[in-house]
Each structure stands twice: as C-alpha cells, then as structure tokens.
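[step 3/7] fold_predict: job queued, chain A
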Amino acid sequence: MTREQTKQIMVGGVPVGGGAPVTVQSMCNTKTQDAAATLAQMRELRDAGCDIIRVAVPDMAAAQALPTIMADAPMPVVADIHFDHRLALMAAEAGVSAVRINPGNIGAPERVEAVARACRERGIPIRIGVNSGSVEKSVLAKHGGPTAEALVESAAGEIEALRGFGFDDIALSVKASDVPTAVAAYRLAAERFSCPLHVGVTEAGTSYGGLVNSSVGIGTLLMEGIGDTIRVSLTADPIEEVRAGLSILRACGLRKQGVRFVSCPTCGRTSIDLIGLAKAAEARLSGLSRDITVAVMGCEVNGPGEAASADFGVAGGKGFGSLFRKGRVVKTRIPEAELLDALMALIEETPDGE
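[step 4/7] structure written:
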C-alpha cells in the first residue's frame, strides 16, 4: 500500500503522521483522580503494547491528579476534555502529551483561543474529536443527519477555529458507529486535510461485535493508506483494545513486532480441546515482542504440513500432541495438559533467528 502523507506531530516522544509507524492507542477506564490505579493500568497497557494512552478529565478532581500522573506516566498521555475549557488549561499546565477536545463544545471563541495558546506555548498537540454524536445541529440539518459529509464539514469548522488562533499541531478523528459512514468520512478527510488521522469506529460494541466492526473499518482504511494512529473501541478491558489494534496492524502488514498467531478451525478430526488450547496459547503469547509465527493445529493433517511457515507450533492427537519448529517435528507424544507449557519452553529456549 501507499501511505497517505500527513503532517507529523509529536505526542510526547511518539511521532504521529508524516510516515511514522502507525501507533496503537487505548483509554484508561479507571477514575483519573485515583492516580495510583490509573498509573497501574497504564503500565499494564504499556506492557500489552499500547503506544499512547488517553484519560478522561471530566472534572476538577481528575484535572488535579494529572501532575501526579504525568510525573510517572510510562507512555504519552492524552487528556480527554469536554465542555469546560479550564480543564484543558489545567491539563496543559500539568504537561500532558496531547489534549483531545471538540472546540465547539468548550464555549466561546476566547476560550478556544486560551486553550490553543496554552497548548502552543508548551508544544502540546490537540486532537479534534468529531463523531456522529457531536456534529452541530445546523450541519446535521444541512446534510439530513450525521453523514460522512456532515462529519467532515464539522471537522473543517473545528480546524479553522484552531488555525484562526495560530494553532496547527492538530490531529483529527471523524468517527461513526456505522462502519460504512466512518470509512467514507475518513476517505473524505484524507482528501481534504493534511493533519494526521486518528482512525477508529466509535461505540463499536463488545469484544466480539466491536472487534468485527473495528477490523472491517480500521483495516479497510489502513489498507488504503489512511490512518496514522488507531484505537479499537470496545466495551471490554482496555487490554483487549490494544491486542486487537496490534493484531489489525499485523494483519495489514504495518507492524512486524510481536507474535503472529495461527490456529486451524475445529472439525471431526480434532481429538483435543483445540479451542481452549488456542485461547490459552494466544493469551500466553500476547506479551511476547519477538517477531515469530506460532501455530496451534488440531491434528496431524493440519500440523507441520499446512503450518510449515510457522516458526513454532503444536499439532494435536488423541489426548497427546506434537511440537514442531520450522515445519519439522521435534517432539511427539506430549500429554495434552502439558502441550502449552512445552510449546512455551521450546520458544523460550530457541534463540531469535533459529
């Protein structure tokens, strides 16, 4: 694919746009005023592969916790602000890495100007977050609802407002919960704007339906070269969002680090708990940063032969299984209950490149 070339901004020490690697974001679901809990979750998300984290700042208590959080944050932090521009000013003073606002909902132009000035003075970028629930009534009436065109027109007004105050370190999202609308909006935004795009499907759903919606929407755009940073929005543990985002990037060929996991579908030949083994293996492997492919196959038919390109794998039998490496069987007759531990031991004892 050919990536759309956008302006590059820095979110903390992480480049976004301008050909930089596509980053994965998530959002803490802790109460931000509980700095200890928020920092603990940030560390868990960092270890899962999250590049940039967002925190909700709905009130003064949350804003007052930001200096403590920023003093020990393990990754760049985006402050999510709505309605009260004073919270954005406090976030900027606390040294957050970016601020997410919708200028249309934080009040009069002079308040937008104050936020823009505070962020400009500190080198803090602003993400304009437009979604189908935040489009101005006049724009909705003009387009007959939250269409792709309405989302982009709303975004254009927000960008113009910030640029009018001399601020241009802007990232943009134009999310919709309807996948075709979201894809169409991002295509229009990519044609019209040079700012980096934060891509996602808003209110995508649960860990099953939301993952399907996000994979289709985000994956489509990434394969067209559109998108500089992503969030898979799920009604689930934020770690699931990160794992899903990394999986989407790997599926699109945009992220090489981390384990590529392969498993076959079940069928009448399967004589082990393949579903349970595959889920457990995927969870154990999710924390590894090695650039390897691991296969969990249900039987000898789908074993080393069909998964010959895998670096490591297991193939099930009747209560037993085999280990293979680079398409060659290295150990057989391993009891089913010991297969996963044996697989992990084989991976750990094999140096990279072998």
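[step 5/7] annotate
The two ends are 30 Å apart (CA to CA).
Residues 179 and 217 are 6 Å apart (CA to CA).
exit 0
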